[in-house]
Amino acid sequence: MSEATRWVTDTATDHSQTYVAHFRELAAQGRDLGGEARLLDALVAPGSRLLDAGSGSGRTGAVLHARGHQVVGVDADPVLVAAAAEDHPGPTWIVDDLAAMDLRPHGVEGPFDGAVLAGNVMVFLAPGTEEAVLRRLAAHLRPDAPAVLGFATDRHYALAGFDAHADAAGFVVEHRFSTWDLRPWTEDADFAVTILRRREPHA
Question: Model confidence over 11-28: pLDDT tens digits?
């Protein structure tokens, strides 16, 4: 049985429903919810196969789909995945544990051209599973594919640990910013957006 994520243990019982309602309200207000998607879109070719890992209620994957990409969204929370499927038809939405993610039983074959983990995914994982999640992410990407991740740096997951886990999983840290709109990184920033690149296999 998978260990409970911090999304479950560190939030209120109705947090998933509140989260869905919050982003539906923001969408109804016409708020910009596509910044994370625009960054990945700039890094990949048109019509790419993209993985939205920790996809939540689907806001990022939906924007990528609207831009012409083939999108698979994966999240461990069935409430969020159900909301994504209801609000954003088009992408494939899957319930799966990111730390043990294997999309083949869901009928998804072949590597992805890029991935995004938005919405503080890395700090809501089950404690101690961060490297496993990055390894499963790498396993689903083709060599040289980018992965874009953003999370708060003032919580329990230090950037030094993240960088070590990314290296062990087969990634290179290519760029780092303090916001999704690419403000320069500073050591005192409370948020980090990192562009990883899947390493090419050794010849």
Answer: 556 778 887 787 678 667
